[in-house]
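Annex B, item 7. Sequence and structure tokens for protein A, then protein B.
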Amino acid sequence: MASAAISGTGAPRRRKSGDERRQEIVREATKVIAERGFYGASLQEIADGIGITQAGMLRHVKNKNELLLLVLGQFESDNPTQACLNSMVEDYRETGRAQCFPAIYRTSVRQALDNPRLTQLYLVLRAEAMDSAHPAHDYFAKRGLKVRESVAKITWNVPEPYRDSKAIVDLYLTMGSALDGLQMRWLGEDDFDLEWHWKVCEDFFYPLPEWEGYR
């Protein structure tokens, strides 16, 4: 049970548990890393953001690399797009039902609009992690491979030319790259309508009448 401390007003103040403090650290680290990148973020700035000393923070996380792993773990937990894909994989395994391919990136667009910081975190770290020495390099390489394998295993409700696993993975990669570019513009430019521009992309990638009944 968390103990109580005395606040400046004399009222008892509940001391945060280790798990609560760790979650607070991860939230603040997510904010700072999204803004400055892993290399630009400092442990001192993160500690200052939640009102504790750096030494106090290091009682909950060993070092900056471990903190990054915690941030990435929270990113996976908070990621609606990954949850959508996982749900599709599970539904396909249980029912054999062909899945709606356009739903993946529509979920990504909604995710970006609902949580821009999570999107910024992904884009900033993904760019930094092109460096093989970056502590998240292997994470992103393995994550991309895992997602592509999941996409290839599902039967999708798509036009005949895309029913081959290579064709659908190629489409997935191409559309993902397009969305990454749009999200970068959206985060960096005023009055950029991400939702509208994604609809333009869908008309290009899912042209009618070929995609009639599949969109």
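Protein B:
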Amino acid sequence: MLVHVAITLIVVASLVFSTSAVAATLTATGYGSSEREARSQALQGLSQNIATEIEGEIEVRTTIDADGAREEMDERIAARSAGYFEGVEYSEAEQVNGEKRVEARLSQDALLQTLRQLRRSADRELDAMSNHEIGELIDRADFGIALAGYARGGQRTQAEEIAAELEEKRAAAMRFLDFGHLTFDIQPDQAQILLEGERIDNRQRQLLPPGVYRYRIEADGYRTETASMRLSAHSNETISFAMVPDVAASVRLEGTDCCPRAARRALGEYGISVDDNSAVTLRFTFNQEHLAEIGGQSYYRLQAEVEGLYEGQVMASNRATLRRVAEGQLDSRSTALVEALTRAIISGEDGKAMLSKASEE
């Protein structure tokens, strides 16, 4: 049976301040079978102690079984940050108990040099980066913010300024990862796009928090488009279509005996009239399936479909189902379905193409 024990990490390579007349220096000691290995361990000691400032208390999970002990922990930042430092100096190797001992030193000037390099590496366009690269940028910013806390003397002000810049970069990167991306690709090019009442540019990606957004698209000589969409976190959505020219359009209605006014009302929102001689037909079909009778009340599944035909050929269709409708609500629910399906087919890509084709005649 496995036994899981949580213990607090005690880093062998220690990080201290050695004060002198010149500046405070960060140091860490490493041991190894060779000078190279000792240097690597000393540098890792510097990294790991800064990473500890980021993560708080580092927890090591030790799994004890019949084969012995095995330790696992997330040292992502500590492992990467060994390559972040600039200007690290090393002492001469000493022989101690059969091992090489080396001390790594990061002076205040080298600390500031490291911070400047971290700032340069974070100064990138997020749009051109992958999520993995953005994650690395966040790690670098976290490391730099923690490292700035060790600045002393005249370097403190500059370090704090760089840390503030890194905090801004980190916040922007976090938003980029957590928010959704939305782009409009609309024809004609001069279309005006209003998203929640604010004008945005065509074909320019927007970074937005998750939620439902309403948009309105206008252009001279074209029908105005209004709709809403849901944007999820981490998504990358593009709304792309060609607007329908604003020319006289008409349709013929079939199968709306239950509620012809509902269809006319929805069509009127798009400036479309009803004409029995139109080449475009909207054909509605309904199906009522009895489900049960409860307390003297019958319940139905109501299914509806609308097809858009141009000269008898089906070019678009939409369907909707209401799974549980009381008998007394059939008329009102049928009316609502007709309105919704009319709007859906007229505003859909296939419906727009159908109306555009008819307007060319």
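Comment on protein B: Confidence is low (pLDDT under 50) at residues 1-23, 56-74.
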